[in-house]
Design brief:
By secondary structure, the protein is of the alpha/beta class. It contains 8 helices and 13 strands. Strand 1 (about 5) and strand 2 form a beta hairpin. Helix 1 (about 35-50) packs across helix 3 and helix 5 (about 150-160) runs parallel beside helix 7 (about 205-215). It is globular, with a radius of gyration of 17 Å. Mean pLDDT is about 90; it is low at about 1-10.
Length: about 240
């Protein structure tokens, strides 16, 4: 049930971190950024901001460049990972532009300095932006090679004191096996981090999962391709899989 107070919905979570994959930015394209996807996403985020939910976002860069894939094909891993970090900054700037077109105030913070286009990551400043109802987009990964944007999402969520991590995917939640390849795959409604690791379910990389478990922060995996799902998750509806 959606609760309202003076026209503002009351969500289950006050401060959340949304993890978006770079592949989501493809939309209907095979490469790059789909402006139509960004427009629809920005509209949904605008609705969330109106509820006074404090929203931070971490974005991958796989729609532009994947460091691990390049490394597997012979590129130096460190160089490839830094290129992947730059790709996440491109996505962050694109999302910021889409948000501003919707009238949403936002800030991009990067793990390494590119002052011409974004703020450096400063925790106190990021929290202050959230308190002022600005969307904060964290880009550039952790600033270090060998760490994924999933690990970045967990790290930033812990740092800002997020109530939950929302991991947007192309499937409805976490399954006992790949639902694309197995028609009899069963989706979990709730599962522990320990079981995720034990069953090697690959929701996130093991570093991110362990960091989440050790810091007792819940992770909710849901389908981003269903319009309105972000709002449904925030309102506490039975959407996706909760890992805790």
């Amino acid at each position: 049930m959606k609760l309202c107070l003076e026209g503002v919905s009351i969500n289950k979570y006050k401060r959340v971190l949304l993890k978006l994959s770079g592949e989501a930015f493809l939309g209907s394209r095979k490469y790059g950024i789909d402006p139509l996807f960004l427009r629809d996403l920005a509209k949904e985020i605008h609705e969330i901001v109106l509820t006074k939910t404090e929203l931070a976002i971490v974005i991958g860069g796989g729609n532009i460049f994947r460091g691990m894939s390049a490394s597997a094909n012979g590129m130096n891993r460190v160089a490839a990972d830094y290129m992947g970090m730059l790709a996440t900054i491109m996505n962050a700037l694109a999302l910021q532009d889409a948000l501003e077109n919707e009238g949403v105030y936002s800030r991009v913070q990067t793990s390494f300095e590119i002052r011409q286009v974004a703020e450096p990551f400063i925790l106190r400043r990021a929290i202050r932006h959230l308190e002022k109802n600005r969307v904060v987009i964290f880009a550039g990964g952790t600033g270090n090679p060998y760490f994924t944007t999933d690990t970045t999402a967990v790290l930033r969520a812990i740092e800002i004191g997020a109530d939950v991590i929302l991991k947007a995917t192309k499937v409805d939640g976490v399954y006992d096996k790949d639902p694309v390849q197995h028609a009899d795959a069963v989706m979990y409604r709730t599962i522990s981090y320990r079981d995720v690791l034990h069953q090697d379910l690959r929701v996130m990389d093991s570093t991110a999962v362990t960091l989440s478990k050790d810091n007792n922060i819940p992770l909710l995996v849901f389908n981003l391709t269903v319009p309105g799902n972000i709002s449904r998750v925030l309102q506490g509806e039975d959407v996706g899989t909760l890992i805790q």
